[in-house]
Write the structure tokens for this entry.
Amino acid sequence: ISDDLEMQSDSNMSEQSWRSAWDRGAMEIERGMLPVVGTACSGSGAPCHALAQLVGDANYKELFASEIHAGARSFLLENYNIEHLYHNMLSARKLRLAELVQYTVKNVLQRMNITRIAILENVMGMTKRAAKTSSSAEYKAPLDFVLKGVLQSEDGEEEEIGLELIDGYAVCVYKLQSKSFGLGQTRTRLYFVMVHESVGDTGTLDHIGSLLDKFQSAIRPDDGPVWQAMQYAAGSGHGWVSETTPPALSYVTSGKTRTEFDKLKTDLGFEHASLEEYHKYSTWCKQRFGDMWLCGMNGREVEQLDLLWHMTEVGERDRLVTDIIKSLRRGAHRSDGLAPTLTTNSKVYDFKFHRLLTPPDMLALHGFRLDHIKFPLGSKRSLYSMLAGNAMSVPCIGAVLTSALLTCNVRECFRVAMTPSPMLQMSSHESSSDDGDSNGSSEPGGYSEAVRQAWPTVSHAGSGFSPKELRNFLQKPGGSVL
């Protein structure tokens, strides 16, 4: 990546020219003896936040990031030292860089052949078979956007190049659950790890999986982690000024939502109840906290809180957490101390503290170190709902990064030091990290002997799997290896 690629907009830019730009970017990486990272759809920058906790701010380098949302770009610039920040990797289309139209990992890895490890995160839904169409029942493999390039034809139609595994890389998929890392939300995600043949093979991926198992088994989530995240955020010094003017409350009067609410109201025996009795919970909150309690909510969401309060057993109300942006029929509420999975527009409400979660609360649910986060002035709650909804959980991506860096043959460049953070809470019997420089140790401190013994002896990479084999693999649960 270079300024040439970022700034030049000549539609006749030659292939030789942009290849030269990539070559200069590769040289920039090659001459630095630090972990170097590039991210696309960068959002809240969780991988770099994790790296900062693992190796220190000065011991890694973020070469490029890309983010289409202007507010998110401000957040990235405020919190990370990024050399090149792109509006969108799709802007490469302006340069007629056909191979980079989707910013496919395949082409990035081929041009920057010293890229040793590539990691992608995706939701579980990507592995499900798509609905049948008139032409075919296409299988939506989550690796499609990694392994299949898409070109834009002259008439605007997309042309598929075809499915193929990336030469020189072994690929595996791991399924991780945020709550297994002590976080206060249910969030199942797939992590695709691609290891270059110069540092590992399929055996290497098995070792990465064994380390991930150790990380998950070493963490014991405590009771009520949502409240722990909220208390941590409150004690971090990151207050949050919500909207200063409460909304004019207007309840839903028609449509599907009104029909749904009326049915629930009847089922609960409140069909002929007074408004004060029906809106008992919200009335109590307004009396206790004033009209400012309404900030951030509309009439539908307030009535939904009332209904949910009536629907919940008395003993469970103080443990109830719900995402009020979603309708009741979607079941986005829990009474086990965990938050529902955060999504793009989430507005999570906690009945124990009787308030919406603030942006610091939501980032704390992902394991971010709030003392390392700056919140740009003037940013709206909706920005952080988007960032948190699309974010990787820091302990999850941190565990993947740590496992990959410890396992692959790149550990001579730096030492991974454990830090006393909520990111990777290893059990107390494991040894603590030694002080020292980070430029030459081949034995990272902070891990048990069992973890150190898990480092593999690597030889060569294997690939060459057919689309049929890939589809069969994707239907298997767990962390299978390609």
Remarks:
- Residues 150 and 160 are 5 Å apart (CA to CA).
- The radius of gyration is 25 Å.
